[in-house]
Amino acid sequence: MATKNPHFYLPFNFGAIPHELAEYDVSKVAILPVPYDATTTYQPGARNGPRALIEASRCLEFYDEETGRNFSGIGVCTLDEMEVVDDAGKMVNRVYEAVKVLLGDGKKAVVIGGEHSISSGSVKAHMEKYPDLTVLHVDAHADMRDELAENRFNHGCVARRISEMCPLVSVGVRSIAQEEIDHIRSSNGRIKVFFAKDIHSGSSWMDDVVKSLGKDVYITIDLDAFDISIMPSVGTPQPGGLGWYQMLDFMKKIASAKNVVGFDVTELMPIPGNHAPDVLSAKLVYKLIGYFFSRQ
């Protein structure tokens, strides 16, 4: 005779959400972990990010003191990790196909990387459903190279590939190559960049970003957008990034003014023995689910 699991066994899913709230059919949100890490140019390890983020999320409380709501009630399903292949173009297409299915099933898709290259696949799927989409790209790097290491789907090219599909607004950039700045200047306004040096103080820039976005918005976040003092666990860290509450204030501005249709969080590279950045990443995903999807 089968017996139920004792109560002290926590589900291994995002937030350790009870099974009845995390089944695919009843969930509004589907989390897709993509442990891909093949084009990294400095420190590898982002392939371990999705599992570390999900593990850290299991210590979170799903009651949010900021909004006074419990976000788990909307249903959050954690899918199995995507099987990866050692081909960046094929990997991007795999993400596209998977997210296309999620959107077809009426889910809000949250993609967890892995390296940033995978984001263009998710954007492509969202573009097909939301043809007037604008992408908000939050990142320390411009990621605007046409090719890097002889690969057009390198993680350093992801914003370039996305900008070929739809308008793109980059925020927090503080590392950029001459090729990239030249391309941005020649884009006739299709690509807009808010450099970190111009947004490190004050908040008026947030309203300027909101005005630059269309109605439907997809958000792609490279965790190196945060300052390295709170987010050292990334493959290509840069000083001078965003703070925790600065990021949350920014995301709330977007949520109040725009229809956020999906998002991804990428480039967590877990550091053994330092779990604080893993928890930050997990709580960011949890907060964004609440901001973007719990009221819709």
Defining key terms:
296 residues, alpha/beta, Arginase, Chain A, 8-stranded parallel β-sheet, two-stranded antiparallel sheet, 9 helices
CATH architecture: 3-Layer(aba) Sandwich
Share of β-strand residues: 15-25%
Global outline = globular
How big is the Rg? 18 Å
Estimated helix fraction: 25-40%
Q: What structural class results from the helix and strand content?
A: alpha/beta
Q: CATH superfamily assignment?
A: Ureohydrolase domain
> Can you tell me the residue ranges where pLDDT is under 50 for at least 5 consecutive residues?
none
| Distance between the ends | 42 Å
Q: What does the average pLDDT come to? A: 93
Strand order of the largest sheet: 4-1-5-10-9-6-7-8
| Tally of separate helices | 9
